[in-house]
Amino acid sequence: MGFFSVLGDCFQILKHTFRQVFKRPFTYFYPFEDRIYPERTRGRHIHVRENCTACAQCVRICPVVAIRMDKEDKMYEKDCALYFDYTRCIFCGLCVQACRFEALFHTPVVDLSEGDRDDLIYGPDKIETLDRDPLKWRGRRFR
Amino acid sequence: MIGGVMLQFDFFAWLAGIPDWILGVLKWIYGIFSYVFHWIFNVFTWIWTTIFIPKNFMFLFRAVIFPGLIFVVMALIWAVWFTRKLWGRIQDRRGPLHMGKYGGLQLFADAIKLIGKETIIPDKAKRWMFRFLPGLLLVIVLLPFAFIPWDTVSAVDGGWAISDLNVSLVLAFAFLTAVPVIALLAGWVSGSKYTLIGGFRAANNQFAAEIPMIISTIGCAFLARSLSIFDISMAQSSLWFAILLPINLATFLVAAIASVGVFPFDAPVADSEIIFGWRTEYTGIYFTLTYFAEFAEQMLYSALIVALFLGGPNGLPFLPGPVNFIIKFLITFFFFVLVSSSFQRLRQDQIVYFCWKYLLPLAVLNVIVIMFAVVYLPGLMLPLLGVG
């Protein structure tokens, strides 16, 4: 019955490809749609200035010296400005663990690439918010 | 005249005659020009009056615009897009998507790119044939579309079918047989070993697939008692031949795929073995022509399947014939692409074994079964065929 088993295999394959037509593609259309990252992804940080006490535990624990602190820049009573150097950061999460005052968190945002190396040093204007400039490419705007 | 002799040549009279002479020359030149002009103008008038007899105009319209050339080329462009999109879907990708909505303009971008590329003709190529063959290939593949029965009303009665002959099935196969010959010739005149191997592989494919393909259509011709594609599709007004000849439908589909030379029978252009088969040396616009010809051939076989097995323009009675035909054509083309994207490439000898050991007996089997059915069960069969 070799012929009929081969024919059956052929129809199995055809069934599979036919189903495949109506499935969602595996690839993401990246700049226009991003995949859903898990909630606890260690992406870029966000600094909540209201809760910060300028205790410098994050600066102290950071194994790659990626965080710099500016105590002169005060918005509230005893907070400070943080500068994150993402050319150095290894996303180990120790700074978030070290923060007792719920002032520093990771976010699931991981696409950090920039055209300029200096743009990867996130100053207080970028580290305190998730908003970012829209990216324009080939006349189209995304992000 | 005093003291003189009368001149035989009257100078002043001659002088006075010059304007008349010039006028005569001008009239003569004007006569030549007006003759030529009227001749050309009459040709135009003749063409004009001929075209604008409604019957002639509709024939021209059918041949050039709607079911004819422009429609087929538009459908071809659509088919390339559809094929790429469908391949993408089957392989969990997205297919073309950047140019236009859902990548619909991708083919135009590709065509512009390919046309803009340099045309390289190898030193060893026979130049004239090398330039001539791709265009000939596309023409030969597009010509049989004239015999596709797009409508239930024949061309003579003003329907949308373009034209018909009483041997159009044979003629369509005659054109389609020339395709691998052109592939072989193109492989030969390109002057490269890969193209030559690819050309012979194309010939091998045709050698394997043509006889099962033609025998698969014998059943339809028997049942319709005609070799005209239009008559065959008209004979299916009560019952599609796909119901009586299901195995022949399958064998025709597989043999058509083998004859076109797409997956899994793409040995002629096997790009991992022989660079791009018989199309290796073609660049730019010539490559575009061969690429289009391949898709046009797939479309032609899909249309033939619809006309021979799936009732042609017969279908839902409230829809016009061309719409019925095109719906069935789309579904058939979908399955054509689906089958041709499902299997791995077969080796040369496997193609021949497969076609001769399995397809040919199966095709003959169905023809024989239906012959016995017509002979021994005429009470059942003849009313189904609309004869009894």
Run of helices and strands of chain A: HEHEEHEEHEE
Fraction of residues of chain B in helices? 55-70%
The helix/strand class of chain B is: mainly alpha
Largest interface, and how many residues on either side?
A: A-B, 14 and 15 residues
Largest sheet entry of chain A: 3 strands, antiparallel
Span of the ends, CA to CA of chain A:
58 Å
Low-pLDDT segments of chain B: none
Overall mean confidence score, pLDDT of chain B: 87
Mind explaining what this structure looks like?
- The complex is a heterodimer of chains A (143) and B (388).
- In chain A, 24% of the residues lie in helices and 16% in strands.
- Chain A has four helices and seven strands, in the order αβαββαββαββ.
- Chain A has helices at residues 2-21, 57-61, 94-98, 124-127; strands at residues 45-47, 67-70, 81-85, 104-106, 121-122, 135-137, 140-142.
- Chain A is elongated, with a radius of gyration of 24 Å.
- Chain B has two domains: 11-52; 78-384, no CATH class.
- Chain B has 14 helices and no strands.
- The interface between A and B is medium-sized, with 14 and 15 residues.
